[in-house]
Design brief:
Structural class of chain A: alpha/beta
Oligomer: heterodimer
CATH topology of the largest domain in chain B: TIM Barrel
Low-confidence stretches of chain A: none
Distance between the termini of chain A: 58 Å
Mean pLDDT of chain B: 95
Number of helices of chain A: 20
Shape of chain A: globular
Largest interface: A-B, 23 and 20 residues
Chain lengths: ~500, ~280
C-alpha cells in the first residue's frame, strides 16, 4: 500500500507513468506462480533475477508482430483495411503499436520500417513529411527507449528518409538497428554511420550471423534482442555470475557444481513463467494479434540472460593487476569463454515444449544490466574504465558475441573527428563482423543521446530529471540511475591518431 | 633484407587517408620545424644514454654500448623523450618488412590500407617501396604522408605501388619556409604539382600557427594552386596545438575557431571543394 500511495503522490512521474506503476503494483499483489523453494532462495540472494517482470505474467515480455502481414491484410479487430498510401501506412502502424503488449506496455518492436513503408514512397518530399511526423508521434507517445525499429539490410528510399529524419529529429525513441551485411550498399551504410555519429543510433547488427541463427525472419527488439518475427520471447530471466562465483568460492566447484545447479534453477523459473503464460493467462487464446496471425505461440521462445562475467572471471582467477584481469589477459578470456560454453551446454540439455521455434531450447542472452547494478558489468562486457585499446576491445568482444543469439552488444565511443571520416567506422565494423561481432553500438563523445546499456537517453533529459522536473520518457529515470551508479561517463573514447 | 627505423606503428587511424588505416611512422626527418608536434621523430638515437636516468620503470637498459628499450616494462610515460636532447627517442626499432607485415596481418580485416608517415618517410624509400608492394599483394591501399621535400624521381620509383600521397605545405613564403624548416619550399611545390598531375595527390595539409606564419597568405595561395590543379584535392587545415612540441614552440598561440573558420572560407572561396578543419 505504501508503494501505491507513494506512486500516486510522486510529482516526477507523469500520469501515464503512474498508471503503469500502479498496474505493476496490482500485478504484484497476487502470487500465482509456483516457484520452487530453491529457486526462491537464489532469487533472494540476488543470484537469479526475474527482471521485475511481475508476479503474474499476463503477456509475453517481448512481442515481435509480423507487421508485413498486417500491411497486407489490415486488421479486422482494429477495423483497418490494408493501407493504400504513405499516410494510411504510418497511421495504421501507429494504431497497431498501441495494441502490442509488453512488460512496459510499450511495443518493443516496430518492425522493419523501411521495408514496410517502401511500397508507399512515391513523392519523396511528402513521404519525408509523413515519416517525420510518424517518428515524432512514436517518440512522444511510445515514451520508452526500449521501443525498437529495424531497417536494412538493403538500401531503400524509405531507409534513407528514416535516417535523414533521425538526424534531424534527434529523438531518443525509437531505438534503431540497421541489419548490415557485406552486401548492404556502401553509401547506405555510410549514411547510417553519419547518423550514428550524430544521434548514437542505429546499431549495426551482423545480418549474416543472425540469419544463420534464425533465418531471415528475425528482428531486433528492446535493447538489442534478436528474436523471431511473428513471435518473440515469453520472458527474460538473468543469472548474476559474480554472485554465483562468490557463492562457489573456487573455480572447480563453480564449474562442476554451481553452474549446473544455477542453470537448473534458472530453467525452472523460466518454465514456471512460460507455463503460466501459455496454459493459464489466456493470452494466446484471447489476443487479436494471435487471432489475426500477427503472432503465433509456436514462434515464441525464452531468453536465458547472464551478466557480471567480468567480475566472475576476475574473482575465480583472483586477478588483481590489470594484465591478469578480464579484458586484458588471454587466460581470463579463455575462462570466460569456457564458462559461457558450460552454461550453454547445460541450458541446451533442458527442453521446454513451448519453445518450438528454437528447438525447445532457451536462447542465451548477454544481459545489459539494469540501472540498479553497481558491482556487476553488463553481460560479458569489459568493465567501464578498464576497456583496452579499440582493436583489442573488439577482438575480445568478437570472441563472445557468437555465443548469444538473443542478444549481446558492446559500445564503442569515438572522438568527434570521426565525423570527417565515416569510412573509418565502416572499416572497423566490417572487420569486427568478420571476426564474429554480432552487434556494434557506437556514438560520438559529444552526442546528447547516450546509450545507457542498450537503450538511448538524452543527457539533457537526465539533467532535467535530476533537477526535479518531469520527463516524458520513463527510461530517463533508469538512465539517470545507471549514469550515477555505473560511472557511464568514464567509458573509453577512442582517439584517432 | 630491407630494414627501416620505425618510430611506431598504430593499428587504427581516422586521420591519415581514406577509411581506417594502419600507420607506420618512420624515424628521421630532413625538416626541423619549429612547431613540430612530434620532434622525437626527427633524429636517430645516438645512444648518449641520457634517457636511461629518466625512465621510472627500468624499461631502458645499457647493453653493448647501446640504449635498449624493453617494451614490456614500458608504461609510455614518455619521460625518456622529454629527456632526450637530440629530438629522438630510444623506442625506435629497426624492423624488416616481415616485422611490419605481421602487424598488418592482425589488423587487415579492419583497415582500408596503410599509410607510411614519419618523420619523413621518403628518406627510407627502398623500405617504403617494398612495404607498399607487399601491402598491395594483401589487397590493401597504400598512402604516403610526406613533407614533399623529395625529388620527383622518388615518386617515379614508387610508381603504382603507391596509391596516393598527402603532402604538407607549411608556408607559402620562401623565406619563412627556410626559417621554419631549414629548407626551401620549391621542391615541395614541385611535388604537389607532380602528384596532382599524376592524380595521386589525396590531400595537402597546412598547420595554422598564428604569430609565427602568414597563414592567410599560405591558405589563399595553396587554395588557388589546388583549385587550378584539381578542385577535388582535399585541403586540410590543422590547428597548431602546444602538446608535444619543444619548449621554444610551447608558448606559441593556438588559432581560434574564428580564425580557422575564416581560413576555411578563404579556401572554399578560392575553389577548393573539400576543406577540412581539424
Amino acid at each position: 500500500m505504501n508503494n501505491t500511495i507513494n506512486t500516486i503522490k510522486n510529482q516526477t512521474l507523469t500520469y501515464q507513468q503512474k498508471v503503469m506503476q500502479l498496474a505493476r503494483e496490482a500485478e504484484n499483489s497476487v502470487q500465482v506462480l509456483d516457484i520452487p523453494q530453491d529457486v526462491k532462495e537464489y532469487m533472494d540472494k540476488g543470484i537469479i533475477c526475474d527482471m521485475f517482470e511481475g508476479n503474474a505474467p499476463y503477456r509475453p515480455r517481448y512481442i515481435l508482430p509480423d507487421y508485413h502481414r498486417f500491411m497486407k491484410q489490415g486488421s479486422e479487430f482494429l477495423e483497418l483495411q490494408p493501407p493504400k498510401d504513405i499516410w494510411e501506412a504510418v497511421n495504421y502502424l501507429l494504431i497497431l503499436y498501441k495494441h502490442v503488449p509488453s512488460i512496459t506496455s510499450f511495443p518493443v518492436f516496430l518492425g522493419e520500417l523501411d521495408q514496410l513503408l517502401e511500397p508507399f514512397i512515391d513523392n519523396e518530399e511528402e513521404a519525408y513529411k509523413a515519416i517525420k511526423l510518424f517518428l515524432t508521434h512514436i517518440d512522444r507517445t511510445l515514451t520508452d527507449s526500449f521501443v525498437h525499429a529495424n531497417i536494412g539490410p538493403k538500401a531503400t528510399k524509405a531507409g534513407r528518409l528514416i535516417l535523414k529524419a533521425e538526424r534531424e529529429l534527434k529523438n531518443a525513441v525509437p531505438n534503431l538497428t540497421l541489419k548490415y551485411s557485406k552486401d548492404s550498399e556502401k553509401e547506405f551504410a555510410l549514411e547510417a554511420i553519419t547518423t550514428g555519429l550524430e544521434v548514437s543510433k542505429p546499431y549495426f547488427a551482423n545480418h549474416q550471423m543472425y540469419v544463420k541463427d534464425f533465418g531471415e525472419g528475425y528482428g531486433t527488439a528492446s535493447c538489442y534482442n534478436g528474436l523471431p518475427i511473428g513471435g518473440g520471447s515469453y520472458t527474460l530471466v538473468r543469472l548474476n555470475l559474480k554472485k554465483l562465483a562468490e557463492e562457489a568460492g573456487n573455480l572447480e566447484d563453480f564449474i562442476k557444481i554451481y553452474i549446473p545447479r544455477a542453470v537448473q534453477r534458472m530453467n525452472a523459473l523460466i518454465d514456471v513463467r512460460i507455463r503460466f503464460q501459455v496454459e493459464e493467462s489466456g493470452f494466446f487464446e484471447s489476443s487479436f494479434l494471435v487471432e489475426e496471425g500477427l503472432i503465433q505461440q509456436d514462434r515464441f521462445t525464452a531468453m536465458f540472460g547472464m551478466f557480471g562475467l567480468a567480475q566472475c572471471v576476475n574473482l575465480l582467477l583472483n586477478a588483481k593487476v590489470q594484465e591478469e584481469r578480464y579484458g586484458h589477459s588471454e587466460k581470463a578470456m579463455t575462462l570466460g569463454y569456457d564458462i559461457v560454453k558450460t552454461i550453454e551446454r547445460e541450458v541446451n540439455a533442458h527442453q521446454n515444449p513451448y519453445c518450438n521455434v528454437t528447438g525447445n531450447r532457451f536462447l542465451l542472452h548477454a544481459q545489459s544490466g539494469i540501472s540498479a547494478d553497481v558491482e556487476e558489468t553488463a553481460g560479458c562486457r569489459i568493465p567501464i574504465g578498464e576497456e583496452p585499446e579499440l582493436l583489442d576491445h573488439i577482438l575480445h568482444a568478437a570472441k563472445f558475441h557468437p555465443l548469444f543469439p538473443s542478444g549481446v552488444s558492446d559500445i564503442f565511443t569515438f572522438e568527434t573527428t570521426a565525423r570527417n571520416n565515416p569510412e573509418f567506422i565502416l572499416d572497423i565494423i566490417q572487420g569486427a563482423m568478420e571476426k564474429g561481432l554480432r552487434m556494434f553500438a557506437f556514438s560520438c563523445s559529444d552526442n546528447d543521446l547516450m546509450r545507457i546499456t542498450g537503450y538511448l537517453v538524452k543527457k539533457s533529459e537526465m539533467k532535467k530529471l535530476k533537477d526535479g522536473n518531469q520527463t516524458l520518457h520513463d527510461t530517463v529515470a533508469l538512465g539517470l540511475e545507471a549514469v550515477e551508479k555505473q560511472n557511464l561517463f568514464a567509458r573509453r573514447v577512442t582517439q584517432h591518431d | 633484407m630491407t630494414k627501416a627505423n620505425v618510430h611506431k606503428i598504430i593499428p587504427f587511424s581516422a586521420v591519415d587517408g581514406p577509411g581506417n588505416r594502419m600507420v607506420i611512422f618512420l624515424q628521421g626527418c630532413n625538416f626541423d620545424c619549429a612547431y613540430c608536434h612530434n620532434p622525437e621523430t626527427i633524429a636517430l638515437c645516438n645512444h648518449c644514454a641520457i634517457c636511461l636516468k629518466a625512465c621510472p620503470y627500468d624499461a631502458l637498459a645499457w647493453e653493448n654500448g647501446k640504449v635498449c628499450w624493453n617494451e614490456k616494462l614500458c608504461h609510455h610515460c614518455d619521460h625518456c623523450i622529454k629527456a632526450c636532447p637530440h629530438t629522438s627517442s630510444p623506442k625506435v626499432r629497426e624492423m624488416n618488412i616481415e616485422d611490419v607485415i605481421s602487424h598488418m596481418e592482425k589488423v587487415k580485416p579492419f583497415i582500408s590500407g596503410i599509410t607510411v608517415s614519419g618523420g619523413e618517410c621518403t628518406l627510407q624509400i627502398d623500405f617504403v617501396k617494398a612495404l607498399f608492394q607487399r601491402a598491395k599483394e594483401m589487397g590493401l591501399t597504400t598512402f604516403l604522408d610526406t613533407n614533399g621535400f623529395v625529388s620527383q624521381d622518388a615518386f617515379i620509383f614508387l610508381g603504382d605501388d603507391m596509391d596516393m600521397a598527402m603532402v604538407d605545405l607549411k608556408t607559402w613564403n620562401e623565406e619563412a619556409h627556410r626559417e621554419l624548416t631549414g629548407k626551401d619550399n620549391t621542391l615541395v611545390l614541385q611535388s604537389i604539382r607532380y602528384l596532382a598531375e599524376q592524380h595521386k595527390l589525396y590531400e595537402v595539409r597546412t598547420v595554422i600557427v598564428p604569430g609565427l606564419l602568414d597563414n592567410h597568405q599560405t591558405v589563399k595561395m595553396v587554395s588557388q594552386l589546388l583549385s587550378a590543379l584539381d578542385q577535388n584535392i582535399r585541403y586540410k587545415l590543422i590547428r597548431f596545438r602546444p602538446m608535444g612540441v619543444r619548449k621554444k614552440a610551447a608558448s606559441l598561440e593556438e588559432p581560434s575557431d574564428i580564425l580557422m573558420e575564416e581560413l576555411s572560407d578563404i579556401a572554399r572561396n578560392e575553389g577548393c571543394k573539400h576543406v577540412i578543419v581539424v
